[in-house]
Amino acid sequence: MTEFTIRESAVEDVPEFARIRAVVFPWQGASVANQVNWFRNAAPAAKALRLCAEVDGRIVGFGNCGLNVTTSQVGACDVGVAVLPEFRGRGIGGALLDRFEEHLRSVGGLRARGSSDDTSLDWVKKRGYELGASERYSVVDPRVLPPLPATPDGVTVVPLAEITPEEAHRLDTAAFADEPGDVPYDGMPFEDFMARIWNSPDLDKHVSVVAIVDGMAVSSVLLDVNRETGWSISSGTGTLPAYRGRGIAKLLKSVSLRRAAEAGVTAAYTSNDYSNAPMLAINDWLGYRVTDTQWACLKDLA
How far apart are CA 129 and CA 296, in angstroms? Predict the structure, then answer.
């Protein structure tokens, strides 16, 4: 059995985490700067714990956990573990997960949610987790798209930079309130939205676009762009319920992807719950191809 040590993570470890994420989550295109931003701006109310595992001084796995601060569901919490494939089966992932579950119980966590691809489903089931919602990851080359759809009557498309962060936050809270998933989304606290979304190093406020109707922001596509790799990943496409079914999201995604191509993006990733048929239809029309499936994994900690 390989000997390993577990310790608390530090921001200096993030470049190593980025290298592991590139292997374990190949659709994860966030820059190292953005991953540093995630680390530094974990919500205090989440009471997060971040750990990493080392073998011979090399980081081979890491993870984090914390209370879910975007939901009113009491005791909802999140947990994630990533171990390099060649170091799996040696007790590293289990040791990290044990520490995280113990921490979550100590801070009031009642129901943990993580995620897994098909290769780790047996492992998470043996750890007492049951499968929940499934999410589709897909990619498109934004330089090769179908013709731009017509602009619906009364709609004006502007860059995200032309609205205020307060408007963007209100739209995020209202548009994603009914997003499919295992835990209801009740909105991100504004301070967290500013730190983790609006001021994210990767959020491109000119590639990201907003639909304005009668002077109000009603739909948006937020796109994170990693200019070093030429990758982007969607951090959300949301439309207010009263404005759905008009082709607005389809137009915004088409415009945003074209802007991404102009910015040098050659691979644009996105993810969607498999039950979100309208968005899956838009992405299929745009030419996205499926690259991965992630399953929500849920466990009662009480």
Answer: 9
- Distances in Å between the alpha carbon of 27 and those of 22, 140, 268? 8, 12, 9
What Å distances lie between residue 222 and 12, 96, 211, CA to CA? 28, 33, 12
Instruction: List CB contacts of 194: < 8 A, sequence separation 6 or more.
Output: 165, 169
Structural domain includes residue 300: no
The yes-or-no verdict on residue 285 having pLDDT over 60 is yes
One domain for residues 73 and 148: no
Domain that includes residue 261, residue range: 139-292
Distance set, CA 243 to CA 212, 238, 283 (Å): 11, 10, 19
Helix count (H) and strand count (E) of the chain? 8, 12
Q: Computed from CA positions of residues 223, 32, 104, 67, in that sequence, does the dihedral angle turn out positive or negative?
A: negative
Report whether 251 contacts 289 (CB < 8 A): no
Using an 8 Å Cβ cutoff, are 266 and 230 in contact? yes
Domain shared by 62 and 165, yes or no:
no
Distance CA(56)–CA(110), nearest Å, equals 35
Confidence at residue 181, expressed as pLDDT on a 0 to 100 scale: 87
Maximal CA-CA distance, the chain: 65
- Total residue length of the chain: 302
What are the tens digits of pLDDT across the range 8-22? 999 999 999 999 999
Cα separation, 270 vs 252, whole angstroms: 14
Tell me the β-bridge partners of 49: 65
227, 202 contact by CB (below 8 A): no
Tell me what the mean pLDDT of segment 174-192 comes to: 93
Judgement on whether residues 167 and 65 belong to the same structural domain of the protein: no
